[in-house]
Write a structure and sequence with these properties.
The structure is a homodimer of 487-residue chains. Chain A is of the alpha/beta class and 487 residues long. Among the domains of chain A are: 1-13 and 117-200, PDZ domain (Pdz3 Domain); 203-334 and 351-376, 2-enoyl-CoA Hydratase, Chain A, domain 1; 379-463, Muramoyl-pentapeptide Carboxypeptidase, domain 1. The first copy, chain A, is built from 13 helices and 21 strands. In chain A, strands 1, 2, 14, 15, 16, 19 and 20 form a seven-stranded mixed beta sheet that branches. In chain A, helix 10 packs across helix 12 (446-461). Chain A starts with 10 loop residues before the first helix and ends with a helix. In chain A, 46% of the residues are buried.
C-alpha cells in the first residue's frame, strides 16, 4: 500500500482532527481506588461536601433566576464539570459531552460507521481520494477521483468538507444514496450504499530500493499494532534489510498498542517505557520481544506526539534506532477515559500518570531531539497567495513573500524572500510564466498565482522533495552498507 | 485640573484594567425572585437536583482520586462555578474568586487603600506621574517624576508595573517606607507613608478658548456623578458656552451614575435609557432634569463601552448632542454582582438585562456610529521599533514600517509606509537626524530609533494633534457662533 499524501483528508480524520492528542489506557494497565475517597469533609450521598453542594447550588440558582436569557440547566451542569477539568490547568484532562465522547471513542477504536471513502475538497467539490479497502464504498464500485455531487438528495456543492463528511456518514445499516460524476461525463451515476463498520487505515508501507522499507503510522488506534505487524511481515518476506518508521504528524493513541509495536524492535529484557503514577511509583514496561537484526530509523516532527514519542524514545534508547527530522511535540503524560461513571454518555479523560523514556527522562513540554536534525524545505509550509489584487514590481506584502518562497522552491531564484517585489522577483516571475506557457508579464495575476500554487503542490507531493524521508532512507542504506562490509 | 495623558497608568487602573468592563446595578434598580426557584426537578437542600449533584460529585471524586498530581479541592469547586458561567457564552457574566472580587468592588466604588500615587514604568524604573490630590502620598510630599527605588526594603528596579503597584498598596493604616530618588541627586530620600482610603479621580475638566469646556470621564464609579457635577458647575461659573464630554477609552461603570450624569443634559420627560429584563419588560428611565441651553458634544472611540455608550446614546437622541470620533465598543447589557450569596467573599457578576437607547435600539455588538467620524493620526497607534538591529536602505520589515509611520507623523515625508526602506525613507531619516542633531547617516541605529520614539511621544501628548478633541471643540464653537447669530 502506498504512503498517503499529506494533502488528503481521511473521512474520519476530518471529523476527529484534534481530539486524538491523547495517550489512552484501556482499563487493564492501571487501576485506582474508588472515587471521592480522599475528601476529609463530611460528604453528602453525592460525594460533595455540604458547603460545596451549597455553593454550586446557589450559583446554579442565581444564574437560572437572574440571567437575562433563558438557560439550559443541563448545559450549566456540563459547564461545571468542564470548569473543574479546566481548573487542573492540564490541556489533556477534558470533559467530553456525549457527542464528542462518541467521536473520541471511535478514533481510539480506529473504526467508524459510514461508507468508507477517503474524500478531499477540490474547488468546492467533494472528490474521492480513494475508497478504503473492503469498505462498502469499495464494494459498491466507488473509484478514486469520483466527484460526489449529492447525498440522499442534498447537494454537497460548496459545502464545508466536515459538513459534507457528516452527510455521507450515518448509522450502520442505513443507506446513503450518492450521485456521482465520473471522468468528464455529463451523465451522473447513482449508488445506493449501505453504511457499515469501516476500519480506519492507520498503517501504510512501501519498499524502496536496496531493501529499505518504510512504514508510516498515522495514529495508534486499537487495531494499529496488528496492522503494523502485517505490513512489517510483508516487507520482511520481500527481503527487508532496513526499516524507516514514519510517525510524523502522528498525534498518538493507545499505550498498549505502541508498547506492542515497540516490542517488535526492543530486545528482550530492555525497557520500552516507564510509567510513573501519582504516588511516584514507577512501572517499567520490559520487552518480551527478541529485537531485529536490521537497522531501524524513526522519522518524526513537531506533530509527533505522545505514543509517537514513546516509540521514538524506546527505539532510540533500547533498540539503537536513529531519530531523524524535527524535535517532537513533547507530551509526556498518560490519560484514561472514564466513560461509564457519569452515566449519561459523557466522559472524563483524566491524566493519570507521567511516562518516562527508558533512561528515565520526562520529555513533557520539551519533546525529543532528533539524532539527525533535518528540516523540510520552507515552501512546504508557505501560505497561499491572496489573489484579489495582482502583485507587481514595488509591491510589498506577505503575499509577495509567499510568491517568492514558491518561486524559490520551484527553482526560479527570486533572490529575496522577504516580501519586497524587486527586479529579481520580476525576472523570476517571467521565467516561471515562460515555463508555464503563460503570458510573460512579470506580474502575478490570478492565473499566474494559481499556476504557481499548482506547481508547488506537485513539488510538495513529490517524494523526491521530502528531505526527512530521503535522509531516513539514506541513513538506513548507509547502515546496511556498513553492516555488510563488517560481516 | 488637566486632562491626563493616555500614556500614564493610574495606580489603581494598573491593577484593575479589564475588570471594569461592566455596567453594574447596585441593588435598588432591579429585584428578582429567590435563587433556584425555577428548577422543575426534585432538588436537594442545596438547590441541586439529585442527578446533578451526583454527576458533579462523581466528577470531583474521579479527578481527586485519579489525577496524576495533587489537587486543591476548593479550586475544583471554584472551577465548577466558573465553568457554569462560561457555559452561558456571555463574556460579561463572570465568577470572581475573593481577591478578584475585592478589586472589582474597589473599582466600582472608585476608591482603594494605598498611598495614592499615580505611577508609570520608565525603562524598568517606577516613576511617579503625580500624587493624587489629598492622598497620603501628596500630604507626605511625594512629587511628580520621583523615582520609587524601593518599598519596605524591596527594590522595584526592573519589576513589572502591576507587581510594583501591589507592593506599594496595602491595607489601611499600614505603613509604606518609600526610598525615592529625586532630580539628578545621588542621595536618596526616605518617606514613611501611612496608607489610607484614596478616592480615584475619574473626572477631569478644562476651559478652552471662547467658553468651550471639556470634561473627561475615565470611568463611571460611585462618586463620578458628584465629581462631574462639581466640575460642570465650576465651568458654568467661568461662563461656559458649550461643552465637550470626552468618554474615549472609558469602559463603563455604574448604571445609576450615568443616568444621574445624563439627567444634567436631557430635558424633563425625555428618555435617558430603556432597560429590558428577561421577560422582555421594558423600564424607561425618564429625565427629571431641565436640560441645558448650551450645545454639547460627546467624544467617543472603540474603547467607549457600556455606561459611556448609554451617555452617548442619551445625549444624542434626547439632548441633541453630536457624537464625534470613532464607532463605540458595543456593550448593550446590564450586570449585577451577587457578592453575599456565595458566602465566601467570591461573587457572581450576572447579566440581568439589556439596555436600549431612548429610541429602542440595542447597540450590543455593533456600537454607536458617530455623527462626525474623526480618526486619530495613524502614528497614535504605531508599534515601537525593535532596536536590536539597525534599519537601512533595502531593509524590509514591520520595524521599518513603524519607523516610516513615525517619520511621516513627525512631518519628514518618507513617501511609503509599507515597511520597505527605499531612498525616500533614507532621505527622511537624514532630515530627521539633522533636525535632531544626530550624526546624519540615513541608517536607523539605536540612538536614532530612540530619538524618533521620544519625538513621537511628544507629538502624541500634544493636544494640538488630538484630531478628535480638536474637532469636538471646533464643532461646539461653530454651534455657539450659530446660536449667537440667531439670537
Amino acid at each position: 500500500m502506498l504512503k498517503k499524501s499529506t494533502a488528503a483528508f481521511m473521512v474520519i480524520a476530518a471529523l476527529l482532527c484534534g481530539s486524538l492528542l491523547t495517550l489512552a489506557v484501556t482499563g487493564s494497565l492501571f487501576s485506582g481506588q474508588a472515587a471521592g475517597e480522599s475528601a476529609s469533609t463530611v460528604l453528602t450521598s453525592s460525594g460533595l461536601a455540604q458547603s460545596e453542594a451549597k455553593k454550586l447550588g446557589t450559583a446554579l440558582g442565581l444564574i437560572e433566576s437572574k440571567y437575562y436569557q433563558s438557560v439550559d440547566r443541563s448545559k450549566l451542569i456540563n459547564g461545571a464539570v468542564n470548569g473543574m477539568m479546566e481548573a487542573l490547568g492540564d490541556p489533556y484532562s477534558n470533559y467530553m459531552a456525549k457527542e464528542t465522547a462518541e467521536k473520541f471513542e471511535e478514533s481510539i477504536e480506529g473504526s467508524f460507521t459510514g461508507i468508507g471513502a477517503e474524500v478531499a475538497s477540490d474547488n468546492g467539490k467533494v472528490v474521492v481520494v480513494s475508497p478504503i479497502k473492503g469498505s462498502p464504498a469499495e464494494k459498491a464500485g466507488i473509484q478514486a477521483k469520483d466527484i460526489i455531487v449529492s447525498v440522499n438528495g442534498v447537494s454537497l456543492e460548496g459545502m464545508d468538507l466536515n459538513d459534507a463528511v457528516a452527510k455521507i456518514r450515518g448509522p450502520k445499516g442505513s443507506t446513503a444514496v450518492l450521485v456521482i460524476r465520473r471522468g468528464g461525463s455529463a451523465q451522473s451515476l447513482t449508488f445506493n450504499i449501505r453504511r457499515d463498520n469501516v476500519t480506519l487505515e492507520t498503517v501504510y508501507s512501501s519498499m524502496e530500493k536496496n531493501g529499505v522499507g518504510v512504514i508510516e503510522i498515522t495514529q495508534f488506534s486499537m487495531n494499529t499494532a496488528a496492522r503494523f505487524k502485517e505490513e512489517l511481515s510483508k516487507l520482511e518476506k520481500k527481503g527487508l534489510k532496513g526499516l524507516v518508521i514514519d510517525v510524523r504528524n502522528d498525534p498518538g493513541g493507545v499505550l498498549p498498542v505502541v508498547i506492542d509495536i515497540a516490542e517488535q524492535f526492543v530486545p528482550k529484557g530492555k525497557t520500552i517505557v516507564q510509567v510513573e503514577d501519582k504516588d511516584k511509583q514507577r512501572d517499567r514496561q520490559i520487552s518480551k520481544g527478541s529485537g531485529k537484526d536490521y537497522p531501524v530509523a524513526v522519522l518524526m516532527n513537531k506533530g509527533s506526539a505522545s505514543a509517537s514519542e514513546i516509540l521514538a524514545g524506546a527505539l532510540q534508547q533500547s533498540a539503537g534506532a536513529k531519530l531523524i527530522g524535527d524535535n517532537s511535540f513533547g507530551k509526556g503524560t498518560v490519560q484514561t477515559s472514564f466513560d461509564k461513571e457519569l452515566g449519561d454518555g459523557s466522559l472524563l479523560k483524566i491524566t493519570i500518570a507521567k511516562w518516562l523514556t527508558p533512561n528515565g527522562t520526562w520529555i513533557h513540554g520539551k519533546g525529543i531531539k532528533p539524532d539527525i536534525a533535518v528540516a523540510q524545505p520552507d515552501y512546504f509550509s508557505v501560505a497561499p497567495i491572496d489573489k484579489r489584487a495582482p502583485l507587481q514590481y514595488n509591491s510589498n506584502s506577505t503575499n509577495v513573500k509567499s510568491a517568492q518562497t514558491m518561486l524559490d522552491g520551484l527553482g526560479y531564484k527570486p533572490g529575496r524572500k522577504d516580501g519586497y517585489f524587486d527586479t529579481g522577483t520580476k525576472d523570476a516571475v517571467k521565467k516561471f510564466q515562460s515555463a508555464a506557457k503563460l503570458k510573460v508579464t512579470g506580474i502575478i495575476d490570478v492565473k499566474t498565482a494559481e499556476a504557481l500554487e499548482a506547481a508547488l503542490i506537485k513539488a510538495i507531493q513529490n517524494p523526491a522533495n521530502d528531505n526527512q524521508r530521503n535522509r531516513g532512507i539514506e541513513e538506513i542504506r548507509k547502515e546496511i552498507g556498513a553492516k555488510a562490509s563488517n560481516s
